[in-house]
Amino acid sequence: MILFLNDTADHDNWGANACSEWLKRILSDAIPETAYTSVMSHWTTDRFYQWPMWLGGRIVKRRPQVIGRFMHPFEFLPAVADDFERIADQWCSGHGGPFASEFLSRLSGSDAVVFNAEGSTYRNNTSSIRCLFALWLASTRFKKYTFFTNGSLTLTPVFPILNAMVQKTFSAVTAASVREPCSLDNARDWIPKVPVALFPDSVFYAAGRIEEHETPEITDLLRSVNNKSYFCMSLSMLTSSIGRYHAGGIRLTGLYDLLIALKQVVPVAVLMARDGMDQSIIRDLARATGSFFFGPHHHYSTLLPLLRSAQFLVSGRYHHLIMAALAGCPVIPLRTTSHKVDGLCRLMHPFFGTAYDPTWLRPELDTVTERARELVACRKTMMESLQTAASDMGRRASGIGTMIREGMGL
C-alpha cells in the first residue's frame, strides 16, 4: 500500500487536479500491483481551533462566528527543526491533533509515503511544515519508504525556518526529486550533501495518453468566436492584487493594457480561470475588454482542444503552460510567486523563452506584443516541436515511478 500525501484532486485548480491524477498514473504504471490511499490536500491546509478547557477543550476545523472568540488556533507542529523529535513523541502518543490523526491512521497500513509536493514547499507555510514533518516521521519512527517528488523547492536566506526542516527531512527520506532546474539548483545550494534528482512534472506524462474532452460548451465557444483567430490568457498568482483596485477598476491595471495591446495582434481573447482568487479578476477583465470567459465548470482536459486552436497562451499558471505544450500552443510565460515558471522555461528551452514580470508589464508592452507577433507567424512550425518536446518530458517524468519502485526494492 502506498500513502499518497497531499492529494490535490480536491483543489479548485485545473493544474493541481491534473498533476495529482497523472502522478497516480505514473505510480500505477510503474507499480501496477500496489494499492493506494490518500491524505487529501485540504488536510494539509485546514486550520484547526480548540475550545477552551472549560468548554470541553475539543479541537475542531471550523470556528463558530458567535462564540469563536473563546477559541484559539490549534497547531501541534515543530516550530524549528530542533523540535522534530519532541513533537514526534507527542504525535505518536496521540496528541498531534486532527491532521496527525488522519495521517497516522492511513500510515498504519501503508508500506510507503509519496509526498506530492505540488503547491507546498515554497514558503515557511503550515502545509510545508505539516507534510515535511509527516514524511520525516514516517521514515524515522515508522521505518516506511518515503519519497518527496513532483514539486518545486524554494529555500532562501529570508526567514530561513524551512531550510533546516527540508535538510532534515531530505536526509531521512528514501529518495527525493524536484520538477524543474531552478529547484534543483536551489537544492544543490542549500542541501548539497543530499542527492536530489530532477524529473519533470507529472502532467507531462499525459502527453499522448490524455483523453481529451471537447464538450458542447467548448464547441459553442469555438463557434462563438466565428472561426476568428484567438489567443488565451490566464493569470499569475502575482497579479492577484489587482482585485483591490477601485476607482477606474480593471482599466487602471497593466494587465488590462497588455490585453488591449495583444488584441491588436489577435482580435479575440479567451480568458481562463478556475481558481476562486482568479475568477473575479478574469470576469472583470473579460467584461471590460469584450473577451470570452472560460470558467470553473470545465474539466482540465477541455483545456487541450481550446489551446490547440489558440494562437498562443499568456499565463503565469505553471500547469496551464504545460498543457499548452501538450496541445502544441506557443506560450508567453509570466512569473509567479516562486521560481517554478522560470524553471519551466529552462526545462522547455528554447520554446518558452523568458518569463515576464506580471507586476511591471507596462515597460514590456512593446516587447510582449512583438513576441506575440513572432509566435503567430511561426505557430504552425512550432506546434509539432512543442508537442515533441512535451512528449520527451513525459518520458522523463516516468522516472518518478522508477525512483519509487527501485526505492521500495520492487
Over the alpha carbons, how many angstroms does the gyration radius reach?
22 Å
**Fraction in helix:** 40-55%
Instruction: Record the strand order, biggest sheet.
Output: 2-1-6-7-8-9
Major sheet description: 6 strands, parallel
Low-pLDDT windows of residues:
none
**What's the N-to-C terminus distance?**
13 Å
Mean pLDDT: 88
Shape: globular
- Counting DSSP E segments of at least 2 residues, the number of strands comes to 14
Report the sheet-strand fraction. 5-15%
Structural class: alpha/beta
Question: Helix and strand string, N-terminal first?
Answer: EHEHEEEHHEHEHEHEHEHEHEHEHEHHH
What do you see in this structure?
There is one protein chain. The chain is built from 15 helices and 14 strands. The model has no long low-confidence stretch (mean pLDDT 88). The strands form three sheets. It has a six-stranded parallel β-sheet with strand order 2-1-6-7-8-9, with helices on both faces. The chain has a five-stranded parallel β-sheet with strand order 12-11-10-13-14, with helices on both faces. Strands 4-3-5 form a three-stranded antiparallel β-sheet, with no helix packed on it. With 410 residues, it is an alpha/beta fold.
